[in-house]
Amino acid sequence: MGHRITATVGGLTLAAMLLAGCTASTDTDTTSDEVGFRETGLPIVDEKVTLTFSGQKAPLAPDFGSMELVQQWERDTNVAITWENLPDSVYQEKKNLILASGDLPDAFYNTGFSAADITTYGSNGTLIPLEGLIEKHAPNLQAIFEKRPEIRAAVTSSDGHIYTLPAAEELGIGAVPFFLSINKAWLDKLGLSVPQTIEEFEAALEAFKTQDPNGNGKADEIPFSFINNWWCADVADVMAALGGMPDNADHRIVRDGKVIYTAAQPEYATAISKLNDWYERGLIDSEALTQDDKTYLAKGKTETELLGAYVWWETEEVVGPDRADDYVLVPALEGVAGRLVGHSNGSDFRSGAFAITRANKYPDVTMRWVDELYEPVMSAQVSWGPIGTTLEENADGVLQQAELPEGVSAGELRQKVAPGGVSVTLREDFENVILPEPRALQRVNDLAEHYLPWAEEEWYPAVPFSVEEIQEISAIETEIKALVDAKRAEWIARGGVETDWDAYVAQLESMGLDRMVELYQQAYDRYKSNA
């Protein structure tokens, strides 16, 4: 019962703040007084106000306003929020237009901001500094910062200001996001073992392509699918086995303290050449280079089983609970340079969960509102859904996952009932507040068994950059990324990496590749010296 009450209070506070931030006159104290802002207790405001939020949301998430938890926030806080959150693929295209426009939202919820975005739009005044508001109106967040100063450091810009708030699920499950699953039922039918080497994996794909393992008499099997450049569905670790260099979503790794841009290394070209061979032989999904996550997730749930192998950080989310037992994880594959597994950059703590813009007339209300999401029980609900729907208390008063409806995966349900993004669940909270969901525990175990023993021991941390560094990196990297992404897709689909490679590297260098790496190295060295 105590959990339920605390959660409700948290929701109330949060919504009220948001609303307050949205309408008003020019003086913050005056406008807050006009709507009856309360420093403590509920509702947060006496007169209903409405705030507008933008940001990203999960691909299967409905409008946040239709969620039970969010509706409770509005009822309790007397705050109404107009949600303009969009699926990531759409939001990333519109984010810069929103930030550059004169019609800003009051706040960004689950901002999707890069380090460059935060530094650029913080320094130019689009995003307001939050540290003073945190000190006055955010006791829950203050408590987190005092307990874990590294979280405060992770959201503090090089100018000393905090422009965005943190998010964290401290289980370490994001270190290696590219889990490779394979259809064990098909392997058994064809008399094959789970691949341990890249050659065995290729042989399995060839068998899936040519031997009709789904038994319908049609050549409709998809031997291997992934989403090109997707954060948890990319082919980076397979490329490591093919080419001999680990990679990650940033194409930025650290070895022996040296920053390396992988997409300009000869090992990368070797891997791309081999993927082109697989693509031309029909071993790779013809849509792998263009599909979005909705298309991808649907392929595992077709009436006739089609997927042979795929990359995703959770088997069940792709193929559904009824078919998940047909698949097993493929361990780190022995490749041309042994077993290599890339490590994600950053840490369990990330910035960019929430930001307040200069358009917000109620920043004090907004900060008090958002602070409620950092109350541990509310953070659990923000991430996993409301108590009584997806969560329940066990005999010890600790939250745990409620039984899932038949045929529903935990990942899909979580997207539909939990807004996510603005929450912090620390390691100790997974003992005292909420038990890790079974699939998260499974990922922890799977990582330990299949991937972490071979994962890179160094990676690029969440380092602070100066405004000048960010501006220069952003200008260079935007152009470089566009070229790298375009050439990667072109070479896998149509070939030509061998003949184009020297000109491609020269073009990267002309765009400022060496300078970009130098800037990343400079910031990394500074970070390490201050650690």
Please tally the β strands and state the result.
16
CATH superfamily of the largest domain: Periplasmic binding protein-like II
The tally of structural domains comes to: 3
Helix content: 40-55%
Strands of the largest sheet, in order across it? Answer: 2-1-3-13-4-16
Nearest-integer average pLDDT: 91
What's the tally of helices?
22
Which stretches are poorly predicted, pLDDT < 50 over at least 5 residues?
A: 1-27
Whole-Å distance between the termini?
Answer: 43 Å
Content-based structural category: alpha/beta
Radius of gyration: 24 Å
Describe the largest sheet.
Answer: 6 strands, mixed
What is this entry, summarized?
This protein is an alpha/beta fold.
What is the element layout, followed by pairings?
Elements: H1 2-20, H2 28-34, E1 49-57, H3 68-77, E2 79-87, H4 88-100, E3 107-109, H5 115-123, H6 131-137, H7 139-147, H8 149-155, E4 165-169, E5 180-183, H9 184-190, H10 198-210, E6 222-225, H11 236-243, E7 252-255, E8 258-261, H12 266-280, H13 293-299, E9 307-311, H14 315-319, E10 327-329, E11 334-335, E12 338-339, E13 349-356, H15 363-371, H16 376-384, E14 391-393, E15 399-401, H17 410-417, E16 424-425, H18 429-432, H19 438-451, H20 467-494, H21 497-511, H22 513-530
Parallel strand pairs: 1-2, 1-3, 4-16, 6-9
Antiparallel strand pairs: 3-13, 4-13, 5-9, 5-10, 7-8, 11-12, 14-15
